[in-house]
Amino acid sequence: QVQLVESGGGLVQPGESLRLSCAASGSIFSISFMGWYRQAPGMQRELVARISNLGSIKYADSVKGRFIISRDNAKNTVDLQMNSLKPEDTAVYYCNVDQPGFSYWGQGTQVTVSS
Fold first, then answer.
1. Furthest-apart CA atoms within the chain: distance in Å
2. Which of 1, 14, 72, 105 is the most exposed place for a label (fewest CB within 10 A)?
3. Helix, strand or coil for residue 111?
4. pLDDT tens digits for 8-41?
């Protein structure tokens, strides 16, 4: 079993920044992808960004140029730097980690962008 602990959510104004962090622990043997998803009220969960163990990155079109994902393979952590936040970025953000045959989710952290 892998446990994910997220931190860094909160309430900010449009144009401000937030940094989300996620630390994985437990039965870690070969993490492939680490990433962040989000789910707004009444909407499906969607990919925000993910990064492979080799550093290949995919961003949602809506966050390209504003968000930056990074990971530390030695510490099993993944961060999401969110800049120029918009009200439409408001959602619960979930950390996701994949190992062969398994996918793990964090408990979610609320990000609210409002003036």
1. 43
2. 1
3. strand
4. 999 999 999 999 999 999 888 888 899 999 999 9
